[in-house]
Design goal:
Bound molecules: adenosine monophosphate, zinc ion
Distance between the termini: 49 Å
CATH architecture: 2-Layer Sandwich
Number of domains: 1
Strand content: 15-25%
Oligomer: single chain
C-alpha cells in the first residue's frame, strides 16, 4: 500500500521513534510545529476516525494519554493540544489515522483559531440535526 505512515511503521522510511509497541507507533512530526510535536498512529492501517476499529482507537488513546503526560513533564511544556484531522476538508494530509500531540510553550507561534459563532446559529436546530430529529 502506498501509505507513508505504513512505510514508517515497516521501517522502510526512517523516523525518530518516541514510543513503539506491537500495536502503536509514536514518532516526532517532521514539521515540529512546536518543540516535541509528536504523532501517534495505529500499526494497523485505517484512514481516519470513521475507519479505525474501536479497540485500536481505545488502545491508541491510552498511549496518547501516557505520552501527553510524559511529553508535558519532560519537555517542561506549559500545556498540550491533542489534535486529530479527519478528511481533507479538516486538514488531513496523510490518510493513515494519527493523533498530534502538540506541546505548548510561552510565546510559541502555534495557532488554533476559535471564533465565537454562538449568536449566528440556532442551537436547538443544531441539536435536532445532530440527532436526526424533526424540528419541534
Ligand atoms: P495531518 O495534516 O493531520 O494529516 O498531519 C500529517 C503530519 O504528518 C504533518 O504534520 C506532517 O508534518 C507529518 N509528516 C509527514 N511526513 C512525515 C514523515 N516522513 N515523518 C514525520 N512526520 C511526517
Ligand atoms: Zn498506512
Amino acid at each position: 500500500m502506498d501509505c507513508i505512515f505504513c512505510k514508517i511503521i515497516n521501517k522502510e522510511i526512517p523516523s525518530k521513534i518516541v514510543y513503539e509497541d506491537e500495536r502503536v507507533l509514536a514518532i516526532l512530526d517532521i514539521s515540529q510545529a512546536t518543540y516535541g510535536h509528536t504523532l501517534v498512529m495505529p500499526k494497523t492501517h485505517a484512514k481516519n476516525i470513521y475507519e479505525i476499529k474501536e479497540d485500536d482507537y481505545l488502545y491508541l488513546m491510552k498511549i496518547v494519554k501516557m505520552l501527553a503526560i510524559k511529553i508535558k513533564n519532560n519537555l517542561n511544556a506549559k500545556g498540550i493540544n491533542i489534535i486529530n484531522n479527519n478528511d481533507i476538508g479538516a486538514g488531513q494530509s496523510v490518510m493513515h489515522y494519527h493523533v498530534h500531540i502538540v506541546p505548548r510553550y510561552d510565546n510559541d507561534d502555534f495557532k488554533i483559531k476559535n471564533i465565537d459563532h454562538s449568536k449566528d446559529y440556532n442551537l436547538d436546530e443544531v441539536l435536532n440535526k445532530i440527532n436526526n430529529k424533526k424540528e419541534s
